[in-house]
Design brief:
There is one protein chain. It contains 2 helices and 21 strands. A 14-stranded antiparallel β-barrel has the order 1-2-3-5-6-7-8-15-16-17-18-19-20-21. Strand 1 and strand 2 form a beta hairpin.
Length: about 350
């Protein structure tokens, strides 16, 4: 009875916190951070669960959801995902993790985004110059995780970030911003209904600032330097913050279905530095038959400005897991994500 009251209190705390957060839209800081690709879900399983995957992920994809989950990888695990976004934009992620006995688990991770070709326009050639460019992002880094006890684990990522605002038309570091970021995650497994608690801090790091300068125009006339009226005023680009996010989540198996059936429920509270809180609720049903696991998933993010229902499915056999997710982004249409994970 006492454990039931504890569980109910945790669920109530998360739900009430998220409900109160939705009344504070006026405090949202939308558009105040850059490197937005760091916020996009990396992997079809987590995407299908509405980002509610801070816990119960124990393969190479844990790099992107909670690095503490890497501590439970045995041997080797590899992961790759591809998302076809709107208007020819694409998003890819990959990771490799290897277990080193008595030390911990180490890994490599990579995320890449491309806008596709964008036509270049200028003040004097507003119908286009005939050239194209791309907005590209890259994050590449190292991961480490270790189980501190049989119930508690910790993990971290550290990444090099490169954001190119106009790949193909700039030169040197012009319009490029680069720096580093870090994530840290914690996991705690209980012995009651397989409840797992997780915490994750993502995208902690210094500000980014594009290289080069830009010119201001006023009614078709370039702005001159007040200190030297014969020279055009060259302005440095402003610095911008990373999309820092704090996540608190839990996962549990509420019913003992027995046999080949397994139902897991997920709840994650997200607190970003550039928007209001979001509550992710999701469920995953797994049906196991000899040598094969089939999974159905769905989730919903309460408080998200555009994302709606998420759906997905997966199959696991011979150490290979293939997952698919369909995400409803409202006016921006549906997005498809596919992932493959290998564990040996």
């Amino acid at each position: 009875m006492k454990k039931n009251r504890v569980l109910l209190s945790i669920l109530l705390l998360i739900s009430v916190s998220a409900s109160l957060a939705q009344t504070s839209d006026e405090l949202a800081k939308v558009g105040t951070t850059g490197a937005q690709f760091l916020k996009y879900p990396v992997g079809a399983r987590g995407a299908a669960l509405g980002n509610g995957l801070v816990v119960k992920v124990q393969d190479a994809s844990a790099v992107f959801w909670n690095p503490a989950g890497l501590a439970y990888v045995k041997g080797f695990s590899g992961f790759y995902t591809h998302t076809a976004l709107f208007m020819d934009m694409s998003f890819n992620g990959a990771s490799l993790v290897y277990s080193i006995p008595e030390i911990g688990n180490v890994g490599l991770n990579l995320v890449q985004f491309s806008s596709g070709d964008i036509e270049e326009t200028t003040v004097s050639e507003q119908d286009g110059t005939g050239s194209t460019f791309q907005f590209t992002d890259l994050a590449i880094g190292l991961s480490f995780a270790r189980a501190m006890t049989n119930r508690f684990s910790v993990g971290w990522n550290i990444r090099y970030l490169l954001e190119n605002l106009a790949a193909g038309i700039g030169s040197g570091d012009e319009l490029q911003a680069q720096n580093w970021s870090a994530d840290i995650g914690l996991l705690y497994h209980t012995d009651f209904k397989d409840i797992t608690l997780g915490m994750n801090i993502k995208n902690f790091g210094p500000q980014l600032q594009p290289g080069g300068t830009y010119q201001d125009w006023d009614n078709g006339t370039v702005v001159m330097d007040p200190s030297d009226p014969t020279s055009v005023l060259e302005n440095e680009y402003k610095k911008y913050h990373l999309p820092l996010t704090f996540q608190l989540g839990l996962g549990l198996e509420p019913l003992d279905l027995g046999g080949p059936h397994k139902l897991t429920l997920f709840s994650v509270l997200e607190h970003p530095n550039d928007n209001v809180e979001v509550l992710d609720l999701a469920g995953e049903y797994v049906f196991s038959i000899p040598a094969v696991e089939l999974a159905l998933r769905s989730g919903y993010s309460f408080g998200h400005d555009i994302k709606g229902l998420t759906l997905g499915a997966g199959i696991k056999f011979a150490g290979i897991q293939i997952d698919y997710a369909l995400i409803d982004y409202g006016l921006l249409d549906y997005v498809n994500t596919i992932s493959i994970t290998s564990s040996r």
